Amino acid sequence: MPVTGTYTISVVTMNGIDKGKLILLEEQDGFVGTLENDAGISMITNCIIEGNHITFEVQNKAITGHENALVTGFVEGDTFRGLVKLPVGLLQMKGFRK
């Protein structure tokens, strides 16, 4: 099953749960996407998908200002599980494909 799609996500932060939407698309020259939450919409960069594993970078607006976050994870069925690496530490991300 492809990893692309639209996911409803939640990230466990120091201030509670940050909810949003992750969109992953495959285009002719690679993978693109966006991460949307209460702070706005951020473009995903450096997206690599191998099988059901995914890695991408996103400029983090909600947790620590405007720092880049590295997201690594995997998809099983319609469930995404991953870690968000920030300068302050690792946060858990979970999502469900719509």
Blueprint of the fold:
Elements lengths: L4 E9 L2 E12 L2 E8 L2 E11 L2 E8 L6 E10 L2 E8 L2 E9 L1
Antiparallel strand pairs: 1-2, 1-8, 2-3, 3-4, 4-5, 5-6, 6-7, 7-8
In short:
This protein has 98 residues and is an all-beta fold. The protein has strands at 5-13, 16-27, 30-37, 40-50, 53-60, 67-76, 79-86, 89-97.
Q: Tell me the strand percentage band.
A: over 45%
Q: Radius of gyration from the CA trace?
A: 12 Å
Principal-axes geometry comes out as globular
| Cα distance spanning the termini | 14 Å
Average pLDDT number: 89
Going across the biggest sheet, name each strand in turn: 1-2-3-4-5-6-7-8
> Quick one: biggest sheet?
8 strands, antiparallel, barrel
Along the chain, the helix and strand elements come as EEEEEEEE
Class of secondary structure makeup? mainly beta
Helical content stands at under 10%
Work out the helix count: 0
Number of strands: 8
Stretches where pLDDT is under 50 for at least 5 consecutive residues are none
Assembly of the depicted chains: single chain
